[in-house]
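Q: I have 300 residues here and want to know how they pack in 3D. Can you give me a structure?
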Amino acid sequence: MRRSVENLVNRRFPEEAWNQWRGLLLKVGLLILLFLILLSQSFVVVAPGERAVIFSRLHGVLSFQLEEGIHFTWPFLWRPTIYDVKTATYTMSGTPHEGDVMGDDSLTALTSDGLMVWLDLSVRFHPDPELVWKLHREIGPHYIEKIVRPQARSKTRMVVAKYTVTDVYSGKRQQIVEELNQQLEESFARSHIILDEVLLRNVRFSPAFQAAIERKQVALQEAKKMDFVLEQARKEKERRIIEAQGEAEAIRLKAEALRRNPQLVQYEYVKGLPSAPQTVITDGKTILSLGELFGTGGGK
C-alpha cells in the first residue's frame, strides 16, 4: 500500500517539478527580502531637534536639509546624515571628568605682562539649522574637533593676551568674556555654527602670583583698618576744635557782656549761691552776710 502511494506521488509530481517549485519559492523569498530592504532604505526619520543632509551618489551633497518628520529617499542613491541642531556645550576644564577630554584640559594663556593663567571654559553652540548642508559639505560631522575646540582655544589666547594679569584677576574679567563672545561668534558664523555663549568658569594663577595676591589682600585689610583709625582720630580732632571754638566764643560773649554791664559779675555770683543765701549785696559793691546785717554774727 505504501509503495503504491509513493508511486502515485512520483507519477504526479516528479522530482524535476519539486525542484522547480523550490527554486520559485526561493526567488519569491529573495524578492520579498529585497523589497523590504529597499523599503527600509527609502525613508528617513528626522527626530525633533535634528536635520538630515543628503549625499547623492550622482550629484554630491544636495543644497538643502530635511526637516523633522518622515521623508522619502532614493535607496542606494541617497545617503542621509543626521545632525543634531540643539544647543550643545563643550567644556575645557582642569578638573578630571568634568570636561569633554579626560584629565586636565584647562586652557593656558599668556597675559600682556607675560604671566601664565589657566582657564576653565565652556562654549555653548549649535549648528545653523538652515545651513546644515553647507556645514556638511565644507567641514563634515566632526565640526567640534575641527572648529569648536581649536577656535575656542585660539581666540581665548588672543583675547587674554591683550590684558594684564591684574585685569584677568579682577576688574576686566567681564569685558574679556564679552570680547571673547564677539570674536567666537564671528569665527563660528563663517563655519555655519551659531554661538550661544561663552562661560568663563574658573581662572587659576601661578603659585607666586597667588601668594602675592594674598599678601596684597592682607595689606589692603591693614590699610582699611588704619584708615578707620585715622578717620576716628580726625573726627575726634574736629570735635575738640569745635568744642574749643564754642568755649572761646562763649568767653568772648561773656567778656562783651561784662564790658557793657559790669554788674553782671554780681548777678552771676548770686546765681551761683545756694537756695538759702547767707549773704546780701548792699550797695552794689559791698557783700554782707546775714549775721552782720542783723547783728547775730560772731565777734569777739
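Q: Anything worth noting?
A: The longest helix spans residues 207-260. The chain is about 50% helix and 25% strand.
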